[in-house]
Amino acid sequence: MSDRPSIAVLVSGSGSNLQAIIDASERGEIPCRVGVVISNKADAYGLTRARKHGIPAEVVDHRGFGRREDFDARLVEVIRTSGASLVCLAGFMRVVTPVFLRAFPHRILNIHPALLPSFPGTHGPRQALEYGVRFSGCTVHFLDEGVDTGPIIVQAVVPVYEDDTEDSLAARILAEEHRIYPMAIRLFLEGKLGVRGRRVLAKGAGRIPAFSCRNPDA
Ligand code: GRF
User: Fold this and answer.
1) Residue 37 has pLDDT above 60, yes or no
2) Relative to the CA of 19, which ligand 1 atom is closest?
3) What's the CA gap between 142 and 200, in Å, rounded?
4) Which superfamily, per CATH, for 111-205?
């Protein structure tokens, strides 16, 4: 177990993506272990999930730092101490600075509940519903200096139904998040991802059969 590379997961809330990553790791579906979980909120349920699995869980409260850069420097310190070779943001509700980004170049992933570049920011499902799109989904991408703008690694699509609420759509999207985040981590750790400008190439990835989907299916 312990000779597998370690990853760090950063959360601010429930941590259901963290749970999917821990479960995938314990089932041997991704070649790593979660070495540390960090939250900026002491009451984040993600910390409880980590502790239940014997994973070190650390609180770094952003309110204790005068500048964003100082908060980020502390995060970098905790992650480096853990020996993590990959950093996964999973519902981590802080915008990070170059201090954080430059510490782990091309080694920070994020998940977003929309089909980027549509609906970046904090309310992906609500915006998709209000805009009236027929499909939405989720995206795992490399973090860059923008908000939800980094090179895209994996996306999954879900339909938006006319009787959806923000909660029902978010739940449908979340179920897919739990599939694609472990997938992206596996591709990264197996060395299969190559970044060419904005495009991420996944070596050896199969093609899904000719894809066609209508919604509504009238
Ligand atoms: C997810 O929808 C994720 O895409 C977004 O924040 C939410 C976190 O959910 N960034 P959880 O804490 O993993 O349950």
Assistant:
1) yes
2) 13
3) 9
4) Formyl transferase, N-terminal domain (3.40.50.170)
Tokens encoding 162: 């006319």
Beta-bridge partners for 116:
none
211 pLDDT band (50/70/90 cuts)?
Answer: confident
Q: Let me know if 141 is a catalytic residue.
A: no
Distance of CA 45 to the CA centre of its chain: 16
The torsion of the CA quartet 30, 110, 18, 92, rounded to 10 degrees, works out to 160
110 Cα–ligand 1 center, Å: 10
So what CATH class is 1-105?
A: alpha beta
Tokens of 60: 């770094």
pTM of the predicted model over 0.90: yes
| C-alpha–C-alpha distance, residues 18 and 171, integer Å | 16
Domain ranges in the chain are 1-105, 111-205
